[in-house]
Amino acid sequence: MQTIIEPFRIKMTEALPITRRSDREKNLAAAGHNVFLLDADAVTIDLLTDSGTGAMSDRQWAAMLEGDESYAGSRSWRRFEKTVREITNFRHIFPTHQGRAAERILAATRLRTGDIVPNNGHFDTTRANIEYVGARAINLPSPESQDLYSETRFKGNMDVAALERLLAREGRRRIPFCMITVTNNTGGGQPVSLDNMRRVKRVLDKHGVPLIIDACRFAENAFFIKEHEAGYSETSLLDIAREMFSLADGATMSAKKDGLANIGGFLACNDDSWAVDFRNLLILTEGFPTYGGLAGRDLEAIAVGLMEALEADYQRYRHATVEYVAAALVARGAPIVRPAGGHAIFLDAAAFCPHLTASDFPGVGLVNALFVEGGVRAVELGSVMFGTRAPDGAEIAAPHELVRLAFPRRVYTQSHFDYVIEVIDQVFRARASIPAYRIVEQAPFLRHFTARFMPL
Ligand code: F0G
């Protein structure tokens, strides 16, 4: 059959708010024209993030009832540990309440002022945790990723030559570890190939620098490898994932993505002395090492979810959904980053709104237009989120003005996405009317969450 169906049926529903344009306009104005400040009840299709927003399966809910809430040594912890080890084979595994908690423990225990952490693309919390301890987060994306529209595969790869130059210049003393993010969220959800990971590892080994995987979307990355990297079409996603983790010395993970859970994460490593430091800080700030900030039932849900994320039929359906929306938008001429990412579609707001400059925040205009048109919530990844300010306060634009439509896992059906396509198409046709925005109120850091805007 040609039609790739959702490999599940629905046995519980959640009502969607169906809203009127006049209400949406009123709600957006009350939220300072920032969709982060909207009540979720005002949103019809919420594509703000794919993090913690997935639907759990009946198997996960059933496992949750078996959650063992013992403080120490619970059965649920053993099950969680066994599953994570089965996939990653790391010697030491620590549960955390979400991904950034793992990042914080890694950064706080391994980094000192002036250290450097290279990555193909740091996520904003990863960067913030590294910078918080006085170290520098450096992005080394592949040159191919600079062309938003090229159909090249594995645009999430790290620039190995740039990594070699950085290592030669700074050496192991300044670089306590290197990270690789699969898939590269900030780079458009683009995957990393096993070949690239192997080459990165070889370079790092020469200098004795460990490799840490930011593994949030490891299963989606494994599916890209199966589909597009030579030699893997017959390999199971579990075996591909194992091969990815075999190249690393540790991992940070947000189980809110490919753990198919609403909360949770972990930190893992092989080094015994690192593990001692991780354990000590974990106890101080997250919890005892057999629950680490999670309930026993959460550990159960994640253990089941990690394995469900590696089911080929699930990944085939998920990638087909993203590609379905991407193809429809390309056919309508809407500018999107190609190829489509694993968890999201990224609209190029600068090309969408050629009448606006970066200082007009075209991403904000586009996000707000999508909300007013159809109650669809997306997120700006442009100069509001990634722009910086010169010492005199002048805005320095981000390299790209993107808008991300993230796909929650197993939540929306094809008709929901047909609706999203129609909303984007309507906004695209009327794009000349998208206004410029000015910031009227902002926080000194991570301003995108709370800033208030005014349309001109
Ligand atoms: N790393 C990556 C690549 C991420 O995308 C995220 C979260 C994290 C780390 C942090 O994990 O949220 O569990 O603390 N990304 C979400 C998003 C928030 O919308 O892309 P967390």
UniProtKB/TrEMBL annotation:
The keyword Lipoprotein does not apply. Residues 46-421 form the Aromatic amino acid beta-eliminating lyase/threonine aldolase domain. GO terms for biological process: aromatic amino acid metabolic process. Its cofactor is pyridoxal 5'-phosphate. The keyword Lyase applies. The modification N6-(pyridoxal phosphate)lysine is found at K257. Keywords: Lyase, Pyridoxal phosphate. Signal peptide: none annotated. Homotetramer. Belongs to the beta-eliminating lyase family. This is Tryptophanase. It comes from Methylocystis echinoides.
